[in-house]
Amino acid sequence: MSEDSERHRFKMAKRKALQDARLAEKTVSAKGLLMVHTGAGKGKSTAAFGLALRALGHGWRIGVVQFGKGQWMSGERKMLEALGAEKVAWHTLGEGFTWETQDRARDEAAARRAWEKALALMAEPDLRLLILDELNIALRYEHLPLDEVIAALVARRPDLHIVVTGRNAKPELIAIADLVTEMTPVKHHFAAGVKAQEGIEF
Amino acid sequence: MSEDSERHRFKMAKRKALQDARLAEKTVSAKGLLMVHTGAGKGKSTAAFGLALRALGHGWRIGVVQFGKGQWMSGERKMLEALGAEKVAWHTLGEGFTWETQDRARDEAAARRAWEKALALMAEPDLRLLILDELNIALRYEHLPLDEVIAALVARRPDLHIVVTGRNAKPELIAIADLVTEMTPVKHHFAAGVKAQEGIEF
Fold it and tell me: Which of A54, A124, B104, B121 has the fewest CB atoms found within 10 Å of its own CB?
């Protein structure tokens, strides 16, 4: 073995020991996570649907409540339902972005319907993963009372994983979440004059 | 209509006009995007598999080459293949993280095998989306020559979308990419002593 690969081996062994030690520190082994995907970048909803795919791979039943732009997700819905319609409870109850509808009362009513559906799904004992897509938008525009939503999320069953997506997650939501990821745009093709691409963005 | 909702309506109408104007500015309508999911946060690979789900929803044929940790993605693979095995070319050719294998020559050979498979898939004319999972790791550890990878990605077919995932994306890759998203960890349950959760993280 050369000196270079010896050094590499030593460095990597040290790193593995560190990783193993970190893993051993973890003590809580089964917990329904409250996950938040926020930020102005791409991938917030897409990563949530990737989690749905994984959950179905584990044989879980999942729920999706869309608080907005449901019309862009029909491909994902069709595919997830093809994997087992009885395993997927999908409800698109948002009526699009508020700047599309321009009617606050209608936005609030739509958010309320979506939230009631979310509460109903949270009460279903066989559901293991619930995606509340774009809930952050409804909270940001105060279409729903933040306190009510926070209280219900905190009181979720211990074995229910929840993913909340959307820009501008409220600090109160981040405070109660287990895992928060910010999707940050580093570079975007729109800036270079390239349109949204079918199959990738819708 | 109350003054408040009038003001809301005006604000939202202005916003919609701005959105519409931005959309009209986009001129390039069909382009295979080079996308990069990087950063230390969650969701890089998961969002890529969410894109795979969407692509299958559009009837596309997709490819996946895993440069690492393939063993954690068996649920996703099983589910995507269940949607049409003939539509999914999946190759797990990485041998795990370098700090697991502790053998540089083996890491390089594995990366080379994975890259050759990626090149072969890029040459298949009916493939529309190719996921190069954890390629960033192989580039970071110089298991592959960066120049060679960059040149091949730049020379991709104009209708092929490629997603490259992994931490520490090289600046040279970011420079040639159309869409770069950094997944930034804001909060992580590991810090609170909660282990990786089955069904969510693997």
Answer: A124
Residue B116, CA atoms < 13 Å, CB-side half-sphere: 7
CATH topology of domain A32-192: Rossmann fold (3.40.50)
Instruction: Please name the residues between 108 and 167 in chain B that touch chain A, using a CB distance below 8 Å.
Output: 128-129, 161
Q: What is the per-residue pLDDT for B169? A: 97
The highest-confidence range among A91-105, B9-23, B105-119, by mean pLDDT, is B105-119
In total, chain A counts a number of residues equal to: 202
Return the CATH fold of B31-192.
Answer: Rossmann fold (3.40.50)
Condensed to tens digits (0 to 9), the pLDDT of residues B71-99 reads: 667 788 899 999 988 999 999 887 765 55
Q: In a 10 Å sphere around its CB, with 0-12 CB exposed, 13-18 middle and 19+ buried, how is residue B135 labelled? A: buried
Beta bridge partners of B162: B34, B130
Structure confidence at residue B195 (pLDDT): 75
pLDDT of residue A39: 95
Q: Which residue's structure tokens are 């109660």?
A: A176
Helix, strand, or coil here: A27?
coil
Instruction: Give the C-alpha separation, A142 to A101, whole Å.
Output: 15
* Whether B128 contacts B161, CB under 8 Å: yes
H-run or E-run covering A35 = strand A34-38
A17 in contact with chain B, both atoms CB, cutoff 8 A: no
pLDDT one-digit tens code per residue, A85-117: 899 999 988 776 555 567 888 889 999 999 999
Enter the tokens of residue A169. 């997650």
Q: Per-domain residue ranges for chain A? A: 32-192
**Is it the case that residue A155 has pLDDT exceeding 70?**
yes
Which residues of chain B are within 8 Å of residue A177 when distances are taken between CB atoms? 187
